[in-house]
Amino acid sequence: MKPVMKQLVLDIHPDAPPTLDNFVAGNNTELIAALSLLAARDQALPARHLFLWGAPGSGRSHLLRATVALAEAAGRPAHCLAGATQGAQLPETPGALVAVDDVDRLSPDAQIGLFNAFNRSLANGQSLLLSGASAPLGLTLREDLRTRIGQSLIYEVQPLDDDSRSAILRTLAGRRGLPLADEVVDFLLRHGRRDLPSLLAVLDALDTASLERKRPVTVPLLREMMQQGLSI
Amino acid sequence: MNQDFWSFCLSRLEQELPQQQFNTWIKTLHASEGQCDDGPALTLTAPNRFVLQWVRERYLRRISELGEEFHAVPLQLDLQLPAPGAARTVKPATAAPMNGGGSNGIHAPAGTAAAGTEAPQRESRSAATGMPPPAAPAVVIRPSEPEPASAADLAYDKTRLNADFTFDTLVTGRANDLARAAAMQVAQNPGTSYNPLFVYGGVGLGKTHLIHAIGNAVYRQNPRAVIRYVHVEDYYADVVRAYQQKSFDAFKRYYRSLDLLLIDDIQFFNNKNRTQEEFFHAFNALTEARKQIVITCDTYPKDIQGLEDRLISRFDWGLTVQIEPPELEMRVAILKKKAEALRVEVDDDVAFLIAKNLRSNVRELEGALNKVVAYARFHGRGISLEVAKDALKDLLNAHNRQLSIEHIQKTVADYYKIKVADMHSKKRTRVIARPRQVAMWLAKELTPMSLPAIGEAFGGRDHTTVLHACRTITDLRLADHQLNHDVHVLTQVLRG
């Protein structure tokens, strides 16, 4: 049998920058609305700070970056910080929106930094947008920080239902110019892991395989890849 | 005409507000009438920045609503301070809710939010006034003029006080009665009653509110008093800065020039030796000059880790008061007060639902209330028991999940460093029996389980044993300081 010719593929992922619009909302419409109010410093929001939590892959980082971008677009200073690498000193820009991703990974010094940011926010007009892996009750942080987080407006990023997942897959596939047949989406959602990171990994693999082999994405292609070791 | 309006406004506000609030905030305003291009105008002059800020945040919206009700057209409303020379115009809050994101490119979800947030506010306003919802914004905002802040303004800013935290807004109950009484004494006679006043209690129980209240009360009595609220972390930053800029003289001069020093969270001094030394000298200088110091901490002085003995002994010179976690009725009252600040109406049953389920600290109550308010606004519904239950579904579940009896037993066993198995064992030595009694007491306080069920969970004991344990712990808490502290800490940990 003639070996299958494979096209070499440039490793480019044309994913759009995260916005609140391109977040598939599912059951999170209230959260999305609250974030847009937070970015705009709208007084309809009953709290100055917002904490959102959810399982890995639920889209926390997407939401943080999207909200920061929205605030910046409206001319408000904004910072997006990663909990794991954040030091003791948080930005003190007056009026800024300060987003800290993964607060559960803050070092002890950084926890005091965030504690100070809470205390100083009244004077410097900052609002904090925080994310974590669990509800405030389950966060292992200093107690004085944990309760301050608990005082914020708290949202759980609700897991997506299958309709939303299939919508995301189609959107992302469409953005890559990759036509995705309905039965492929159904197959993935019936047989594979349904968390978003897993689905996106499969989409990447399908995209590459489709380009390499110059074949459309179909269930037979998917099965073939699974036989060659792709786990879905 | 406008003077008539102000009398009308006063009579309405007098009916709507508690007498004390009306006298403190509204009666002190000076109103002057006028007419501008756009219609009737009213200028309110507040005696100081403190009142101004308060009125702007709490009452301006209501006054503008009344203005529209009275004149049937939007009222031009200015709020200012009596400054010699140029008066400072402060931008009033808009009465109409913001656009909700339509202008910044958010589509479906945010648009829904705008509709959702706007509707109930309008409803509540029309319900309050009995008038149809206003078609135009009730307050016309003048472009703010870049004028220098008045001296009083700057002086208040320098205190770093939060004008929201006053004795008026502090809910009182058994948990903070003593602390509040002492704080009011100190506010009335700074430097001469209790010096220092040392306030301690768990996180989120209102220590910071209390010391701001002292500062605000002293400022109201004497706006010339030099007051400074400082968190220990900021004090530490000041020391570091003084080091870097070699400006220790200025630093010392400043802190020793104060009439009232309010220093928050002293436990953060932990092992910061140079900062402690500076504070020690400032403390001595201030107390010698009979200037007041108020300190807060999360624990009582002798338990503070990493603090020099000479400081600890000085903290005992004055009065040490504790703030305890609030009981149910007080939590309900706190929620009602917070709701008032958010300008929403919360019925007793809703407040009770939140207060019953969230017991540990005030911050958590506030978080839950925020959640309910946001939910109601988003869905365009009033705040009812049903809405509150929906909004708090996750939160309530998370709490109920945590407080199983196994969780209590494990937490107590870990705390006293005994085995969880000892909770069920027949051993009766003090080191095991006492923690077991504490765990039984906590199980009774923190879960809805029956006493027989609790006894069963502790190795099949009789319910009278549980009853005896609960009585013993209740009695011992009054006599045994250490045990009381243990129970306090455990309660905090369990309630999360």
TrEMBL record, chain A:
Q: Which InterPro entries match?
A: Hda (IPR017788), Hda_lid (IPR055199), P-loop_NTPase (IPR027417)
Name the chain's protein. Regulatory inactivation of DnaA Hda protein
What is the originating organism of this protein? Azoarcus indigens
Domain Hda lid stretches: 162-226
Q: Which Gene3D superfamilies match?
A: 1.10.8.60, P-loop containing nucleotide triphosphate hydrolases
Tell me, which GO biological process terms does this entry list? DNA replication initiation; negative regulation of DNA-templated DNA replication initiation
Which NCBIfam families does the protein's record reference? DnaA_homol_Hda (TIGR03420)
From TrEMBL, chain B:
UniProt-annotated stretches for the region Domain III, AAA+ region: 160-376
Alphabetically ordered keywords of this record? ATP-binding, Cytoplasm, DNA replication, DNA-binding, Lipid-binding, Nucleotide-binding
Superkingdom of source: Bacteria
Subcellular location per the Swiss-Prot or TrEMBL entry: Cytoplasm
- Spans annotated as Disordered: 92-134
Renumbered to this chain, region (Domain IV, binds dsDNA) spans: 377-496
- Could you tell me which residue ranges the Chromosomal replication initiator DnaA C-terminal domain spans? 404-473
Keyword Nucleotide-binding among UniProt keywords: yes
- Residues involved in ATP binding: 204, 206-208
A GO molecular function held by the record = lipid binding
The chain positions of domain AAA+ ATPase read: 193-324
Comp. bias regions, Low complexity: 108-119
| Gene Ontology BP annotations | DNA replication initiation; regulation of DNA replication
Region (Domain I, interacts with DnaA modulators), start-end ranges: 1-94
Location (main, coarse): cytoplasm
What Gene Ontology terms describe where this protein resides (cellular component)? cytoplasm; plasma membrane
Q: What job does the chain carry out? A: Plays an essential role in the initiation and regulation of chromosomal replication. ATP-DnaA binds to the origin of replication (oriC) to initiate formation of the DNA replication initiation complex once per cell cycle. Binds the DnaA box (a 9 base pair repeat at the origin) and separates the double-stranded (ds)DNA. Forms a right-handed helical filament on oriC DNA; dsDNA binds to the exterior of the filament while single-stranded (ss)DNA is stabiized in the filament's interior.
Which family would the database say this protein is a member of? Belongs to the DnaA family.
Assembly mode: Oligomerizes as a right-handed, spiral filament on DNA at oriC.
Q: What is known of its domains?
A: Domain I is involved in oligomerization and binding regulators, domain II is flexibile and of varying length in different bacteria, domain III forms the AAA+ region, while domain IV binds dsDNA.
Name of the protein this chain belongs to: Chromosomal replication initiator protein DnaA
